[in-house]
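INFO worker-7 received task bundle
INFO bundle size: 2
INFO processing item 0
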Amino acid sequence: MSIQEDIFAKIQEFETIIIHRHQRPDPDAYGSQCGLATILRANFPQKKVYQVGENVHGLAWIAEPEKIADEVYKDALVIVTDTANQPRVDDQRYLNGKYLIKIDHHPNEDPYGEICWVNDHASSCSEMIVDLVNGVEQLTLPDEAARMLYAGIVGDTGRFMYDATTPHTFRVAAQLTEHHFDVAHINRRLDSIALPVARLAAYVYENLQLTENGAAYIVLSNELMHKFELKDASTAPIVPLIGKVIGVKCWTIFVQQKDGTFRLRIRSKGPVINELAKEYGGGGHPLASGAFMQDEKGIPAYIKKLDAIATAYTGEKND
């Protein structure tokens, strides 16, 4: 029996199913979590299916999470999607259920759950949810779930520009677009930015620092974010923009948090950067990771390490 069938057997077994995803969610977190919830509601209308976590206004067009009482977790099946490490799970009540399943596409350095299905070759967790449906004959895919999952795939592949995009990714995306939803609207929505974010983008391009070896960085302080009337979550659209600059191999955006610490958004067009992220309390994909820093004193040493990674890289993806 395949792991998809194992997961389906557990879904059949439980009457209450609660689906979690990671903190500070992106379109794939929302798409995989809420897409799976929508699939289960359509196929098992008698079951109680919930999607929980922080409500991010900018992603409410994909779906919205629900608030549930603690007692709902009793005898429930909990599924966590798109979350590599347990501390990143949004709403720590995920441990209060009777049975736990992990579905994820990040490197499996924290294999939690009684069933742990990880495919770090998948472009996104949303792609894996489609694979789940395709791997279980009894499951059908409703149009609304297809819309959410398509948004997740497009979001996590950077509109199919990132290295994790495979022929299978395109086949899955094509399958989803056969359903009834406005594909162009999803693409436009994911490509749109608010005016304050556009102004921040202009600032980033104007003040971007780039070493001779192709390591780029920008520091976004609390004062600067206040000036642009933006919060940390609003910096997500800025992250891929730096990769458009010719000569940039890898880059980091330092976003100061309210407590003075920094969140590091680390990306690359070739050099492997997730090991560097681990040094700073983070991790992720080889070309897309996150980390943390206590204060700005650590930035110069970090930049030297990022520059060394860029220097050592001899691949062709440095245009």
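INFO item 0 finished
INFO processing item 1
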Amino acid sequence: MKNGSGDIWRVKGRRLVETLDRTLAWTMPGYCSFCLAGTAGGRPWCDQCFRALAWHQSACPLCSEPRPASVPADMPCGHCLKQRPNFDDSWVPFLYEGEIAQLIQRFKFSADRRAGHILLQLMLQALREYHGQVQAIVTADLHPRRARERGFDQTLWLGKRIAAALDLPLYRATRLRLTPTQRGLSRRARQRNVHRVYRVMSPLPASVLLFDDVMTTGATLEALSRACREQGAAHVTAGALARTPAGRAI
């Protein structure tokens, strides 16, 4: 009885937060979500704050690992030279730091829908500069137990809206077993942790964009890529909102 009552209040609490978010969006139009300065064009940021975000300017073309701007853009990083990832390339517009990291944390761990809507609009804005050919988007489901604990699946929430905005089909990869969190694990341990953990249930088009919220070593996206290859995907791009800086694991 106690658990049921707690579930009811969690639902009521989420509805209250959502109502407050809608009210704030209605009562505070035209203000930057970062500095509260005036904005134009209906976007939740001002030009100065938008330019100051942690844009991912220099990355490995295969796994998007950050590196100095002096490195040639077409040169893979040391990890990819030693072992090429299963996916063909990657696209990650932001670094996981500063305002971007705070938005992701608020959305992922506190179910802050306002942060989610800002991240969605930032991702759609960044996608205007993406020139790859994509026929579908693929997201990886949280394990049902993890989704219940968190209250929602943040990657699926974003993936659905991005796919709808781009008029692309969305495919979901089923997680076959519950695994320990990837937080704090080494690159090799992350790869072992998610080995053959995903399955895509239907055939895929030739070119797909995988989508995750944060890319650290690429282990999750690589496991997802293998599942997509098994269903016919010929060209796989690993995509995420943000990439952790080199040498930093979360």
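INFO item 1 finished
INFO post-check item 1: The chain has one domain: 51-243.
INFO post-check item 1: The CA atoms of residues 7 and 114 lie 22 Å apart.
INFO worker-7 idle
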